[in-house]
Recover the amino acids of this structure.
C-alpha cells in the first residue's frame, strides 16, 4: 500500500514540475508576442497574471505540501475578468450578468474563506 502512495506522490510532483515548465514557456511565448506586436493589452497582462498565479500555486505546493484554496479562486476570478474583457462590446447582457455574477460569487467565497481561516474556532481544531 505504501508503494502505491509513493508512486502517486512522485507522479503528482512530476506533473507539477511539468505544469511549471509549461507555464514558464507560455509566459515567454506571450512576452515574445507582445514584443513582436509592439503593444500590450489588458488581456495580455491578465493572462500573464494568471501564469504568475499558477507558478505561485506550484511554489506553494512545494513550500507547504498543500495548495491554498484561495489561489485557484483568484485564478478563476482573473480568468473570468479576462473573458469579459476579451468579449468586449459583443457580449450579450445575459452573459455579462452571469459572468459578473460568477466573479462576485468567487470574490464572496474568497472573503468567507479568509474570515474562516482567521476565526478562533478554526485554530482550536
Amino acid at each position: 500500500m505504501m508503494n502505491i502512495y509513493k508512486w502517486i506522490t512522485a507522479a503528482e510532483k512530476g506533473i507539477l514540475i511539468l505544469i511549471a515548465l509549461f507555464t514558464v514557456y507560455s509566459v515567454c511565448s506571450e512576452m515574445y508576442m507582445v514584443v513582436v506586436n509592439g503593444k500590450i493589452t489588458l488581456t495580455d497582462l491578465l493572462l500573464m497574471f494568471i501564469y504568475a498565479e499558477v507558478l505561485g500555486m506550484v511554489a506553494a505546493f512545494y513550500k507547504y505540501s498543500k495548495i491554498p484554496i484561495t489561489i485557484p479562486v483568484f485564478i478563476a476570478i482573473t480568468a473570468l475578468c479576462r473573458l469579459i474583457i476579451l468579449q468586449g462590446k459583443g457580449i450579450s447582457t445575459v452573459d455579462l450578468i452571469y459572468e459578473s455574477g460568477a466573479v462576485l460569487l468567487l470574490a464572496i467565497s474568497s472573503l468567507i474563506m479568509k474570515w474562516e481561516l482567521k476565526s478562533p474556532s478554526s485554530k482550536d481544531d
Remarks:
- The chain has one domain: 2-118.
- The chain has a mean pLDDT of 88.
- The chain is about 85% helix and 0% strand.
